[in-house]
Amino acid sequence: MSQTNFDVAALRSFVTGMDLGSFAKAADRVGRSTSAVSAQIRKLEEQVGAPLFRKAGRGLGLTDAGEVMLRYARRLVELNDEAIVAARGTDLEGWVRLGLQEDFGESLLPGVLGRFARAHPKVRIEARVARNADLTSRLDAGELDLALVWDDLDLSMHARRAAGLSVELAKPAIHWIGSDELQWTAESGEPLPLVLFDGACMVCSLATDALDRAGIAWRVALTSPSLAGLWAAAAAGLGVTVRSPFGLPSTVRTLDPQTYGLPTLPTLGLSLVRASNVATPPVDLLATIVMDAVRGYASPPLTPASPAQSHLPHRARAYA
After folding, report:
1. I need a labelling partner for 61 at 20 to 30 A (CA). Which of 20, 166, 248, 296 fits?
2. What is the 3-state secondary structure (H, E, C) of 50-104?
3. What are the HTH lysR-type domain coordinates in residue numbering (predicted)?
């Protein structure tokens, strides 16, 4: 029996289309025509022997086979890229100092650093997981080469972007976070109990400002120096905290603002920032890996089909 061999280029188009929420955008990203990407998707379905897409409301979603295929496609594409980088960069040496938000310390950091370390064993990495203010100050002091940070609310991030030092990777909404143990309701007449970081916190300030504008009373029920402390307190029902949806543990969930009578919170940009325009090859390579990982982690929702997408295979049109 002949062995089926997947085409890495087709897998890359599949993964890119899912990450971008559009196979038309994926075609631009991978440097192919939309008809060529359409043919790749059809060939993948033929090789799998099952449809990858199913109807989901007005658009389409992945079938069980599609979900499985996407997971393996990511791994195969990453392994392909890792092999190429490793073979070409066996002599790469140096030092990279990376800073990350706590939100990504457990969910993103191990995979990113593991992938980089396997490809470049001679490069030393120093990683720091900290809050936004600490990371930006260390960037300014030259103590970090790269940092994944939330866009601040003043002009400094605009200045970094204008200088070519910052690239926005995602703009997720900030959510109210709690658990089924929460006893507070808007009808109780009690101030909303908040679980917040101790000290200055930009995300926490967004939430309290929104509550003040909405005329909703609040109180600080618990402060913690760590994100794990916030999750534990919210899971126990001590109060509500605020965060992006990245890295949420199973013990907490995002709360519907309308259900709880809370204001909708804004989006907040997430950027990868360099300390200097003068970057070494190790810094450039790690920056690329971090950007790819975050963009895949923060994939946008897929959009429904439109008449302009009719050139794509029927089951892929919802993603164009």
Report:
1. 248
2. CCCEEEECCEEEECHHHHHHHHHHHHHHHHHHHHHHHHHCCCCCEEEEEEECHHH
3. 6-63
Q: Total structural domains in the chain?
A: 3
Tens digit of pLDDT for each residue in 173-216?
899 999 999 989 888 889 999 999 988 788 898 899 999 999 99
Indicate whether 1 belongs to any domain. Answer: no
Instruction: Count the neighbouring beta carbons within 10 Å of the beta carbon of residue 96.
Output: 24
pLDDT at 78: 82
pLDDT of 76-132, one tens digit each?
A: 998 887 777 666 655 678 889 999 988 887 777 787 888 788 778 888 889 898 888
DSSP-assigned letter for residue 273: E
Per-residue pLDDT reduced to its tens digit, 237-257: 999 999 988 888 899 999 999
7, 40 contact by CB (below 8 A): yes
Based on the domain organization, do 44 and 189 belong to the same domain?
Answer: no
152 vs 155: CA distance, rounded Å: 8
Residue 274 inside a domain? The answer is yes
CA distance 234 to 99: 26
Give the bridge partners for 168, in sequence order. Answer: 271
Closest C-alpha among 201, 207, 253 to residue 226: 201
CATH number of the domain bearing residue 152: 3.40.190.10
Q: How far apart are CA 3 and CA 159, in angstroms?
A: 54
Residue 262: its pLDDT value, please?
Answer: 95
